[in-house]
Amino acid sequence: MPLSLAVLVSGGGSNLQALIDRIEQGVLDAEIKLVVANKPDAYGLIRARKNGIPTKVVVHSDFPSRGDFDREVLRAIEAHQAEAVILAGFMRILSPGFVQAFHRRMLNIHPALLPSFPGAHGQRDAADYGVRISGCTVHFVDEIMDHGPVVIQAAVPAEPGEGGDALAARILKLEHRIFPQAVQWLAEGRLITEDRHVRLTPAKRPPADLSDLGVCLVNPPLEQGF
Ligand code: GAR
Fold first, then answer.
1. 148 part of a folded domain
2. Cα(17) to centroid of ligand 1, in Å?
């Protein structure tokens, strides 16, 4: 049985698209039951509709509190019987009740090497700081923003004077590779968490070809198809 997902977006949804594409290619064993956006103009909604995926818009400013907003999102997810929640550029902090409802069944992607540069502008903050290596992180979501156990990270060189936008574009290419892979590991039940540490059970597939990605380091290594 494919893992049934709810994907939450706030913007362009290119990471959502990467998941859709890998599902279509038959390498990601998942089904997206619902895409939720907290902004009515999120392009991710159009990507979902183009692919026949049900959508729901829940605008946070329509709700008196964070808890009320989260309960509405939770209701929608439960109505669509999603087993796991994927935060694909979802720029809202979720309340502890929501997080607990999907304990170790909710993944987030962040465009920096956590624990460095959490928050809404990871790539820009890293570029402004002048780091020489940055990247992206997929992690389980816990009650603290950009904090839960790390599943996979990918690193790329950052160049002096390179603006946040240029760095963000190179990081995004890697996001599209590591996020579907992390979701596949979740679908396969291969992610074993012990406190903060996530152990991946042994690979069933050979390593992926990363030759199109330029200089990068990905750990754990991507598997064939990703
Ligand atoms: C991605 O770079 C994602 O890592 C980031 O938002 C972008 C969404 O792009 N998420 C965060 O910054 C979360 N803290 P997308 O809508 O094209 O997938």
1. no
2. 12
Do 132 and 23 belong to one domain? no
Phi, psi of 60 (to 5 degrees): -60, -30
Tokens matching residue 160: 């002096």
Catalytic site residue from 110, 121, 139, 197: 110
Residues 88 and 188 in one domain: no
Q: Is residue 147 part of a domain?
A: no
Structural domain count, the chain: 2
Does residue 166 share a domain with residue 86? no
Tokens read off for 192: 């074993």
What pTM, to 2 d.p., does this model score?
Answer: 0.98
CA gap 60, 66 in Å, rounded:
8
Q: Of all protein residues, whose CA lies closest to atom 2 belonging to ligand 1?
A: 111
Instruction: Tell which atom from ligand 1 comes closest to the C-alpha of 121.
Output: 12
If asked whether residues 2 and 79 sit together in one domain, one would say yes
Tens digits of per-residue pLDDT, 182-197? 999 999 999 999 999 9
Domain assignment of residue 130, yes or no: yes
- The backbone region for 85, taken as left when phi is positive above 0, alpha when psi lies in -120 to 50, beta otherwise, is beta
Span 66-115, pLDDT tens digits: 999 999 999 999 999 999 999 999 999 999 999 999 999 999 999 999 99
Give, using CA atoms, the residue closest to atom 1 of ligand 1: 89
Q: Give me the domain span that covers residue 117.
A: 112-136+153-226
154-185 confidence digits (pLDDT tens): 999 999 989 899 999 999 999 999 999 999 99
Label residue 23 exposed, middle or buried (CB < 10 Å: 0-12, 13-18, 19+): buried
Q: What pLDDT, on a 0 to 100 scale, did the predictor assign at position 204?
A: 82
